[in-house]
User: Fold corrinoid adenosyltransferase from Trichlorobacter lovleyi.
Amino acid sequence: MALLPELLPDELEMTKPDKQANEQTAKHNKAMKKHKEKIDGCIVRAEEKRGVSILLTGNGKGKSSSAFGMAMRSLGYGFKVGIVQFIKGKQQSGEEIFIREKHPEVYFWQMGTGFTWDTQDRNGDIAAAKTTWAHAQELLQDASYHLVILDELTYMLNYEYLDEEMVLSALRNRPEEQSVVVTGRGGGEALRDLVDTVSEVQDIKHAFKSEVKARRGIDF
Ligand code: ATP
Ligand code: MG
Assistant:
């Protein structure tokens, strides 16, 4: 079938928008090439193979859910995962149901009973924090765990429920191939200095402040 004369490339006059589009494409390709060179350089330099320590902090939503996202990633490869939550055990969450029901192979420990924000029993809180920390410490000494999540651990440091040096030294001395994720607001400068990656989730806005009720599967 013969092409219509106006579609023959040789006879196409480049219109102004075409020229603009071509220039834009060329500019984009040049920028991408430069970007690729930079990334490739970083990839070549990033030779060290070891577990990493990550702190997810800040006032915005997304810290614990990001940590649980990494648990999902690790489980996808069949790696061993241990999770210790420094929170009251009463609050049920989708992640707890998921792990307890679908992934019983995951080591899962919640501070739970004994922890009493409401009753202001500082000694009781400290005792609960210490008992819970013992579980974390065990995981941090067990090289079979690929990933350890210490959810809301920072509050134990903020309130001085746990000794900072004890926590930092356990993080520092964990098995080389093990990664650890700590979540929670604050946590202190020494923790930030120690870990490899720090991400601060910024609170731009949150539905809760517009009086939208916390949602199952989204907020807990
Ligand atoms: P998520 O578990 O959703 O990733 P998070 O771990 O970053 O949240 P936390 O401080 O642990 O944040 O709080 C957990 C609960 O509080 C979640 O229900 C979350 O939606 C809510 N939340 C988190 N940040 C805010 C905020 N800035 N304002 C109001 N509610 C928040
Ligand atoms: Mg959280």
